[in-house]
Amino acid sequence: MSFPILLNYAVGSVVNVALIAYGSRRLLGVRHFPLTRTVVAGLLGELGGNRIINALASGIHQPSRNVGPALAVIGLGVASSLLLSMAILVAWQALVPYGAVPPPSSWPRRLRARARRTRRYWQIVRIFTRAGLGTLLRGGVALSPSMARSLSGALDSSGVVFVKFGQVLSTRRDLLPPEFTAELGRLQDRVTPLPWPEIEQVLREEQITEEFADIDREPLAAASIAQVHTARLRTGEQVVVKVRRPDVVDLVERDLDIIGRLARRLEFRAAWARTIGVTKLADGFAEALREELDFRVELQNLEAVGPGSGNVVIPYAYADLSSKRVLVMQRLDGRPVTAALADGAGPDADHAGRVQLARDLLGTMLRQIVIDGIFHADPHPGNILLLRDGRLALIDFGSVGRLDSELRAALQRLLLALDRRDPVAVTDALLEVTARPDELDEQALERAVGSLLVRLRGAEAAMGMFAELFRIVARHELSVPPEFAAVFRALSTLEGGLTMLAPGFDIVAEAEQFGRAQLHAFAPTSPTSLKDAVAGEAMTLLPMLRRLPRRVDRITAAVEGGRLSLNIRLLADERERTTIGGWLQQIVITVLAATAGLMAVVLLAIKGGPVLTPTLSLYQFLGYCLLVICSLLALRVLAGIFRAGTRQLPASPPTRSMIMGQRRE
To answer: What pTM does this model have?
Structure first.
């Protein structure tokens, strides 16, 4: 074969492959198949179509004289090529959805990462097994008090991410037994500080080293995610510099992946894990921890909370000097309340002064929750400083909670009902803010709430009441919004700091006093203010009241005349019309495919008829054509189904999980 003929054949084959690939994508109605898949499917379709054309044309004698049969055979072969290419694309998408396999260029890096992750995974499994928790991982045992200490020890040995996960679990008194929360609450970060050259390298990369007149190379504090150094700006202000550890992102992602795998395994195998929702706990923890890695989130939180007021100080941040890895804040002269009170420090070391500090701290938190709607979501004792001037300070705003006006109003109604010890009002408030299941025994829920309120009369801690209330909610399968879980988690965490400040501090009485003071501040007490409030509400309702008599008269006249009718707009939403239109299109195509298939079977079964070739009759040819049309339509339906399934593969936008119970911005 000469070179020009070979070149023409190659060019013709390339053109045929391109046309078949393009045509198969158009006929399937999917334009986003990867180029590699489309080219491979087109090439295989071209090869298969040539084989079919050669097989059918073998019975045609002198094709130049039998033009009609030859063109029919060629057309059937081209259609078969398209059909084969479409079938390959649909089967490929069904077996290996687009995006399920990463590109080959990333395989070496992914293999190395998978190897490291696998080694770490089996290391964690060995730690849990040596701690006697092998049956816990296999899901063959229920929770018991004897497991609490073993679980705490295993988490402590597994690294900083697992320690932080245990710390978060220790605040979930609504989900875990008291012995578990007590043991997990003893977990503490024990992190070796990074050497100064590594911290200095981060500051140089962020290009802010020139802003400091001097900086202390010895860290003020070292935690799992960052460490803090004191410094002085060139303008003279004393600041603290919070620097993220350079290697923390990879370590966190690796361990979060392992925590997620273990959680899914537990939830699949253990009933107790499904009861408390271990997978949701792990997902919420992962989402919150990833946000803590970005210090810009904490910067926004500090700006939103504000500078504080009264005897509770909140540091301000330097936005122009802060970034994703570095946060520069005002330096507060004080120590964590745990260390300060252990040394006998405090306002004259007297009980009255400590009670006042506890009252100020509780009032600040309640004001942030009930009035401002943005609050510190992790006020554990380590995040509370006792300043040298006798005031308190809240630090570390990497975790905040947010409540909109409706949620704050609902929370106020719930707290007011708890204050009155009214089981009916508490039950109504709970049902207002929770998602009720399909079958709910409201009388049983009301009796359980009433029994709780009777048992907790007197000087019981409010946090214990909230924890028991959450257990009642869980038993009746009510879903508590994560924003409310953030509130109760923050108050439960604050209890430790208040107890350290003033042992015996009556949290219930102080909270009730705060509520009465706020109610008095916002309620109209004088006749003039009451009159103004009523007048304001009346002016708001006046336009509606003016239209009401006319509308009532029209409705009455329509009822008397038998002309009352209801107008209901179905499918008013464009998305609903699009969805139903797509369904109808799929149904019509399916019916057409089935019809073509039945007609093809009938024609292929007919014997005799006009002859196109010695081996192919006209009826058989038409039957094959209808069979191709049936297959094309069926493949188009399947392509639409697999494409819809692929669109649903990505996870829904996480919502806040119950583990952290907070919203971040």
So the answer is: 0.61
